[in-house]
Each structure stands twice: as C-alpha cells, then as structure tokens.
Design goal:
Elements lengths: L14 H9 L5 H7 L1 H10 L6 H12 L3 H7 L1 H13 L1
Length: 89
C-alpha cells in the first residue's frame, strides 16, 4: 500500500466524506492511518466541515475494513468515549 494512496480508494468514504477530510488537510490513507478515525473526525469538524457521526463510523470502517453499519452498531460506545476523551485532552 502506497504512502500516497488517495483516501478515495478506501471503502465507506464517498465524495462528501473525502471533501470533509480534504478541508482538514487529510488526503492520503497514510495521513488517516497516522491520525486514526477519532482524530481525523475531530479535525474535519474543527475545519468547519458539516459532518455527522456517520463520518466517524465510516472512517473507522475504512481503517478496519468493516462496513460502517457494523462499526456504528458494535463500536459506537468505544468511539464516542474516545471522542469525548480527545475533546478533554
């Protein structure tokens, strides 16, 4: 997998998600992997992108290979806790 692999090659991330990430300066898979789903979501939100928690589920799914619906159902609580902790940090 190339360090410059574009985000568009990941599953779960459509044009709106890609635009939100680009607004936060996240354009490659390597950048997304380095940040992780929670930090990437927070950066997109801070950059002013109009994003919902569905982006968080999609980001985690893109990184883990899980469908976003599975992430939302099975990993919601841990992701929301991580998001809260990142806000407090």
């Amino acid at each position: 997998m190339s360090q410059r692999q574009p985000i568009s090659e990941l599953p779960n991330l459509g044009p709106k998600s890609q635009a939100a990430l680009a607004a936060a300066g996240i354009t490659t898979v390597a950048q997304l992997r380095r940040l992780g789903s929670v930090a990437a979501y927070a950066k997109a939100k801070q950059a002013g992108a109009n994003v919902s928690l569905n982006l968080l589920w999609a980001l985690e799914g893109a990184l883990t290979g899980l469908p976003w619906q599975v992430v939302a159902r099975e990993h919601r609580t841990s992701l929301l806790l991580a998001l809260e902790q990142s806000k407090d940090a």
